[in-house]
Amino acid sequence: MRLLMLLVMGLGLAWAQRPVEVPFWHTAGPPGQEVLEGMIREFNASQREYRIVPSFVGDYREGGLKLLAALRSGGAPALFHAEISFLGRMVQDNVALPLDEYLGNLPSDFYPSFLEAGKLRGRSYGLPIGLSIPVFFYNADQFAARGLGAPRTWDDVATAAQRLTTRAAKGYTVSSDIYSFNVLVMSRGGAIVNGQGRPDFTNAKAVESLQYLQDLVKRNIAQSRNIAEAQFSVADFLRTKTFMGIAPITMWPLIENRAPIPFKLGVAAVPRSEGGKVPLAGGTLVVLRGASEQQARGAVAFWRFLMEPANIAKWVRATYYMPMRRAAQPLLEDFYREDPRRRVAFSQVEYAEVWLQDPEFTVWYSFLEDALERALKGNANPRQVLEEAQRRANAVERR
């Protein structure tokens, strides 16, 4: 009998010491996937309370669709890696768990706007891990051949596009997707959402930005591409059919690692007017309602591990996401020194701001992209198409 009691007690103790499993669906593809999953293994080995169990579920869009299906049918994870524009919808639908009570005191050296990427209505629902900014890519060889420097203003961009355009190539790539358009608007000190996070397409800066892009296309010095043609935009640039364009900084390692580039890649800060900003986009960890208290604590403990300066530096080197804390910057000095272009691009961190948190974004963004395409490919009046998109967006917001 005594032996049986000891056996039962031993099994109970072993069960009590078993780490809490936290199923984690993530959307970090190459080159970040290997680094993220490596840090998960390091976290699991560093303590015995929690065990993060990762599953790669595709890119942001694929992962979001899989999550929605799992929420309907069951089987959703405790922790999900969401794109920050999807976070507002998750909060509105009461899917995301507020995490303030688990966070406690955080280090004081986080870039404030970065933590804001995970907050809605003053509460923390997301734990940002991979935030990116846009950069200006250009063909440095062609610029040098024409005596051009990296553009500092949008007027410089128009001038360079004029001088670079030939019968076989256009100077600039204009993309009629919401992200690329928003880069231009924010860089001019404007926004496509108002102070309450609601769509605002008809403000002066938005109209001015679309008129500017349409003028480049009308002058035949820019190639217009829509979101469905995004892969062609990259191909045009690499095949020297265009010479300039805006893209997230995370495209940089993907471009340079895919194949030899037939020219020197120029990378510069996005041209900004006085008061201009650059948008923060990217991903955040979200604990789903239904997770246990211990799973929520485990998710926060994992995020704190990822936010250690050495781990931030490791993540930045692999993905080119922004360093979340100032304490990581000294660890990246050699990274910046190895390639001065990185220092210029990453210096934009001081001007970065969250660009979008409206829960209705998943509905109204298509109205704006339709307006952009009609103006840039169909030559429609910029103000009129933006006014129509605004009316359609307002109808969604009033529901």
Describe the structure.
Keywords: Signal, Transport. This is Sugar ABC transporter substrate-binding protein. It holds the Pfam family SBP_bac_8. With 399 residues, this protein is an alpha/beta fold. The chain folds into 2 domains: 18-131 and 280-348, D-Maltodextrin-Binding Protein, domain 2 (3-Layer(aba) Sandwich); 134-269 and 360-397, D-Maltodextrin-Binding Protein, domain 2 (3-Layer(aba) Sandwich). It contains 18 helices and 13 strands. It is globular. The termini are far apart.
> Could you tell me how far the N terminus lies from the C terminus, measured between alpha carbons in angstroms?
68 Å
Q: Count every helix, treating DSSP H or I runs of 4 or more residues as helices.
A: 18
* CATH-defined architecture of the largest domain: 3-Layer(aba) Sandwich
What is the residue-mean pLDDT, rounded to a whole number? Answer: 91
- Looking at CATH, the homologous superfamily of the largest domain is Periplasmic binding protein-like II
Biggest sheet layout: 6 strands, mixed
Count of individual domains: 2
Task: Kindly state the percentage of residues in helix.
Answer: 40-55%
C-alpha geometry:
globular
% residues in beta strands: 15-25%
What is the CATH class name of the largest domain?
Alpha Beta
CATH topology of the largest domain: D-Maltodextrin-Binding Protein, domain 2
Q: What Rg, in angstroms, do the CA atoms define?
A: 23 Å
Unreliable stretches covering 5 or more consecutive residues? 6-15
Structural class: alpha/beta
Oligomer: single chain
How many beta strands in the DSSP annotation? 13
